[in-house]
Amino acid sequence: MRTSPTMTDDDDDYKAAVAPERRVTFKPQTRSSPLPELRPGSPGNLEPREREAPGVPGGPGEASRAVAPREEQRAAVRDSVREFGFNMVASDAISLDRSIADLRHDECKYWHYDEALPPASVVIVFHNEGWSTLLRTVHSVVKRTPARYLAELVLIDDFSSKEHLKGRLDDYVAERWNGLVTVVRNERREGLIQSRSIGARKATRGQVLVYLDAHCEVGINWYPPLAAPIAHDRTTSTVPLIDYINGMDYTMEPQQGGDDDGFARGAWDWSLLWKRIPLSERERARRKHKTEPYRSPAMAGGLFAIDRDFFFELGLYDPGLQIWGGENFEISYKIWQCGGTLLFVPCSRVGHIYRLEGWAGNPPPPSVGPAPALQNYVRVVEVWWDDYRDYFYASRPETQALPYGDVSALHRFRREHNCKSFSWFMENIAYDVLQFYPLPPKNVDWGEIRGKKSNFCIDSMGHNNGGLVELGPCHGLGGNQLFRLNDMNQLMQHDQCLTQGGKEGTGVTIVHCDRTEFNDWSFRMGEGRFVHSPSGRCLDRSETLQQVFLALCNPTSLNQRWEINHIKF
């Protein structure tokens, strides 16, 4: 197991949520805006006075209505999904200024805000993005943000190669917005993370930095509730509620997985995968009104706001993080452990298009190592998790020998800013994460599970929550082919266990589990056999059908013999 330095520790209403004890050495607050006030029956002072006009009356996608492709467009739709991850045929048919459904709780329309809110610099990073999805993001910000609050919108082009993102984009932006929107072009591929730090340096007009992904649509009156907590306490970072835009038909709906009001908090499992957990009773009790901001241990990372000076005082993103992955946790831990506050804001809503299955992706440049996201995760846990990092390595054993660079400057930052320990964070902020994602047991063995004298390995195929595991050609990259057998007799991948598919089933499924569930497996190393204890059957395979299943144990069957091989990057 790796060893690293360990760091140690040397409200009933909205005010309690947004004004925690200040603990560290950041610049003092020079002006604190008054908190918003809810006045039932009195429309909010910054609410639009008229209903939003459609981009094209009766046009495709207006009011977030579905856009269905015609039969003759299906091939073009498939091609666009492969290239961009979205149905660009439908997107291109929708007005860039389309109207959208207002998904806010009704109470949101009666909040009154300080009108002297700080202006925003909105930063959007893109790489080979589709034309209309990118431009609709920009149009929505300009359309739905009062001019006095939008200082600038900075587009960071992360070395795109698509022709429509070159001169055509420059001309469109210059002719339409007269300097309000600018394009900054990286001279090489920097990745999302470092491009966002570049954006912070380039965006100098606004006091608040707002980061948005390049395929979003901001909601009605989205900015005042997002900015108000920051105006009250500059060490607060805020996150809008993120609604789901269907990348095929462009309908919009609240994201699933929250409580009865649609509220959820950000969390993680111990392999550092993003998770959503319900709003706790403790957080509900801190608020007087349903739609007040609430604390969250972590953010998803794509959409958030932060005081510009505070972000610089935090050191922006770790400069050693590459491309994409883990940065949302790094900034979340840094904010909380170093004296700030992270709030989710129910009355600020932003729709986000999620990539569809079949997208070819944007591979990182060859100069980046084989596993940049895993390297990022290691840097994050080595800097912020203290002794909890051992649980990450139990969940991701393949990362134990992964080089992750020098993090001494980040440890020095923690010391100089008197940042709290991860134990403090777990006890005070992420106090219920363990209820949903218990600490993992120690591993007995781990790696790819390869058939004896075979080139086929067990593969989850990305399935979860009851999906079947299958057999696939061994690729040696880990991922969906990396499993671990722990001392609780669980055969696991991330936070999920392999088990029998139904009481009498022979299939093998993968399901979410805690350490007391599905303690089903033993590996008889001398025989190379996995035995499923409850059924007494052995793990078997058919390479012809590429299936994994349970069968009566047969000592002479080569298809029931396996080997566990560690993964090396």
UniProtKB/TrEMBL annotation:
Source organism, top-level taxon: Eukaryota
Keyword Amino-acid biosynthesis listed: no
Metabolic or biological pathway: Protein modification; protein glycosylation
UniProt KW keywords: Disulfide bond, Glycoprotein, Glycosyltransferase, Golgi apparatus, Lectin, Manganese, Membrane, Metal-binding, Signal-anchor, Transferase, Transmembrane, Transmembrane helix
Gene Ontology BP terms: protein O-linked glycosylation
Topology term for the membrane: Single-pass type II membrane protein
Entry similarity comment: Belongs to the glycosyltransferase 2 family. GalNAc-T subfamily.
The protein's name: Polypeptide N-acetylgalactosaminyltransferase
